[in-house]
Amino acid sequence: MRPVLLFFLIGVIFITALILIEKDNFLNLINKYFPFQATIIETLPLGPEKKDLIQENKEDFLLPPEEVEIEEESTPEEENSFHPEIILTEIQNNIEEIAERIDSLSQEVDDLIEESQFTVEEIPQADEEEPENKEEAEEDTEKEEIEIGQGVGQELCERVIGIHPLKSMVIINEVAWMGSFSSANDEWIELKNISTAPTDLSGWQLLDKEEQIKTIFKGNLIPPGEFYLLERTNDDSVPNISADLIYTGSLSDSNEALYFFNNNCQLEDEVEANPDWPAGDKSGRLTMERSSDLSWHNYNGQGQNGIFGTPKSENSLPPTPSSGGGGGNGGNENETPTPSLPPPKILISEIQTASQDSVKDEWIELFNPNDSPVDISNFSIQKATSTGTIYKKNFEKENTIPALGYFLIANSQANEDILNLADLKHSSFDLADNNTIFLVSNQEKIENGKDPDIIDKVGLGEAFSPEGNPAPNPKKGQSIERKENQDTDDNSQDFILQSNPTPKEGQAPLKSDATPPIVTFSPFLSIQTNPSFLISWQGEDPIVESEITSGIEGFFLRYSQDKENWSYWPSETEYSQENQYNFQGEDLKTYYFQVKAKDKAGNESGWAEIAIEINTLPVVINEIAWMGTIDSYNNEWIELFNNTNSGINLEGWKILASDGTPNIQLSKIISAKGFYILERTDDTTLPEILADQIYTGDLGNDGENLGLYDNSGNLIDSVDCSSGWFAGDNSTKKTMERKNSQTSGNNSVNWSNSQEPGGTPKQQNSQYAP
């Protein structure tokens, strides 16, 4: 009975596997482990449906002729008696082999069942096989990109060096760059509207450093004070909270960035991992949250549903100093600091990176502002970061700066005059522009892998400066010198250019600031299609040789429609440190904006001025000859009209029908209050009129849904005649004319037949009704 029972057990396994596993996987499994038994599966009691399935794949079950010894001729009686004997004989002969393989078969069955379940549930996979039909794959990819908010049909914005984020409307509020304990792929990003008005994100973009994330928002509105959640790949990253948008692309744990642009490609917000993220903890899966001052901190609270953050709710309060809360990858939050006296204050008072004669004439001057000498034997100079040291060792022993005295560190290859003044010479001295110079103590902390105590720091040029306001790069023969040995929180701004360097001496005489500041508006679009938009500007207090630069005190903005009746912000007499203003105007109005700046010495700049016209329909589809002309029904043409008082460059604009034809890429400039004619196929459609552009693709006589899009992909005008043209006559060849160019093109009442056949190309419409 033992062979019979074992045969029964194997049969149960086969039947179960056939039910649970896909057809092809089952057949491959049988052929792999039981090549002979594959020829007799038809004898199993599988039911008609499964037998049919196996019959369809019979070729997969056949063994090579040399492995199956069956006589070429046999009687019906022999054929009918073949199966039972073969089954029993072969099972007995192969019982040991079956026993050895049964465990392996069971394990592979489990694996295939698990794979089958994943297939049934349609869980998105990171890497899928390339589909055979490339065109269908591209269509599916495009559809998927649209569903998950990826960039389609719109150029990506670029991060411009030197432009600071506006941080005025919507900000990046929380980032789960580390994923969750369930999966490192469970990344998510939260936005917050910090303005007092709803914000339409249409045309806004969220990009990462390498553009793995390329999200362009379409029709997304965030109420004031509310949140917007983006989840990676699917809606499972944050359990029990629905995502507002699904995106693709991963965030790196280091050397990464997120850039958030508005619909004018102005940088609204950014956060950089340089090289580490400013907050967030990978080991504890703590998210990176925005503080009220727009700095960053670790999530501070208990996890919910496996999420250690606050998706779509107010951020947690920053940890108290005693609880740690460093950024990047967690820091040393659980360490107990050892109480110690703070190191004495020493200032970096002057820096020269090169003289007119030699690039090796590099030196740094230190100043002791204390009333007693300070031993700096445990100090060192470092550059760029706390780990990129200039000196490999501490200062030489028993180096002391006298009270109110100076200490000069020079390159050992500097000229003789410098070396005669130097208190310390070092062959590894190597200063450079666009750097940050640190004076630190406690070198032993560095040797133990910890951050040293920073005594003073100065950023140069485009340096990574903690203050974000680096001092200027000194030119050859110049130095940067601290103003009267000041020590403020923004110490890079304490430095000015000095044409006559003074190593180991007091500061050269300086004049008071008598130079007015300079103010300019940020790049802007002179025509705004939304009555609500952001105005921004920037100011600079110029650096003048031998003159103290006091810095910008504030800005003063005013606006008017006639340059006479001005409105002031923040008030008629008040200056503000803010450099941007959310303006709310009216459609079809032109506004003049003026801004000026004042520095801390009381000098005022002149007025900088811009003019902005608001027009929600700057260019419209004005007339359509969908029926052709008397000469030929193929002589179709379309006319555009510019509603504004300025010429508009149509480069990158397009007219697109919902069915894909026509698809017209526009170019050239349409003049103020001017017309633009597009003729089909060639310039013979309107013999007396020169076409502005030739296009291909016919207009259906049953109607079209036409959209006019700007170079950012924004829908400017729409004429939805998908159920039939609003006007125009195919028999008389009267065109379809727009009555009012400032009224919606989707309103059928706003269209009429032209008074005469052939319409009014490049002229005011015959049915014009202002």
Question: What features would you describe in this structure?
Answer:
- With 770 residues, this protein is α+β, with helices and mostly antiparallel strands.
- It has five domains: 2-121, no CATH class; 170-300 and 308-314, Immunoglobulin-like (Sandwich); 347-498, Immunoglobulin-like (Sandwich), CATH 2.60.40; 518-614, Immunoglobulins (Immunoglobulin-like), CATH 2.60.40.10; 619-757, Sandwich (Immunoglobulin-like).
- It is built from nine helices and 43 strands.
- The strands form eleven sheets. The chain has a six-stranded mixed beta sheet, with no helix packed on it.
- A hairpin with an 8-residue loop joins strand 30 and strand 31 (608-614).
- Helix 1 runs parallel beside helix 6 (95-121).
Structure described in brief:
By secondary structure, this protein is α+β, with helices and mostly antiparallel strands. Helix 1 (2-20) runs parallel beside helix 6.
Could you name the ranges where pLDDT drops below 50 across 5 or more consecutive residues?
19-27, 36-89, 111-152, 322-327, 329-340, 385-394, 485-490
Compute the number of strand runs.
43
- Class computed from helices, strands and strand pairing: alpha+beta
Work out the radius of gyration: 38 Å
Q: What is the mean pLDDT?
A: 77
Helix content: 10-25%
Quaternary state of this entry equals single chain
The name of the CATH architecture of the largest domain is: Sandwich
Assign an overall shape.
globular
Q: Output the strand order for the largest sheet.
A: 8-7-2-1-11-12
* CATH topology heading of the largest domain: Immunoglobulin-like
The number of distinct structural domains comes to: 5
Determine the strand fraction and express it as a percent band.
25-35%
What is the highest CATH level, the class of the largest domain? Answer: Mainly Beta
Number of helices: 9
State the major sheet.
6 strands, mixed
| Cα distance spanning the termini | 100 Å
